[in-house]
Amino acid sequence: MSHFTTIKVQIKNGKILHKTLQELGYTVETNTNVRGYLGKKTNAEYVIRQKNGYDLGFRRQGDNYELVADFWGAEIDQTKFINDISQKYARYTLMEEVEKQGFNIEEEETLEDGTLRVVVGRWV
Nearest Cα to 54, choosing from 80, 73, 67? Predict the structure, then answer.
């Protein structure tokens, strides 16, 4: 019996996801197995190894990625983990889009409630 659980996340760009995980301090392996209970394994594109043998992985499912892990042994706060990744991912996605459209970042700040406020500008 498998204990792996998947959680859908609003992440579409694997390169930005990889950069996000590294920015948060995780060592990321690509295209490998996620380990779980009793040595069970499942594949994922991005994997964070944990010392206790219960890894965290992200794999593409349709247009989005999903988080896959055996959370019985993963020893993480799932909500905080996903929120941290989502916030950084959103920032990188925004910055990439701003740059593509020829804008410059004029100002950036994180508000008390965690909201990111970005002011962009462009010379015309």
Answer: 73
**Do β-strands 5-8 and 28-35 pair in parallel, antiparallel, or remain unpaired?**
unpaired
Mean pLDDT, all residues of the chain: 92
pTM of the entire predicted model: 0.86
Measured CA to CA, the distance from residue 68 to residue 47 in angstroms comes to 9
pLDDT, average across residues 59-84: 92
Please name which of 49, 24, 45 lies closest in space to residue 36, comparing C-alpha atoms: 49
Angle among Cα 100, 106, 111 to the nearest 5 degrees reads 105
Say whether pLDDT at 2 is over 70: no
Instruction: Kindly compute the dihedral angle of the four CA atoms of residues 23, 48, 16, 89, in this order, to the nearest 10 degrees.
Output: -70
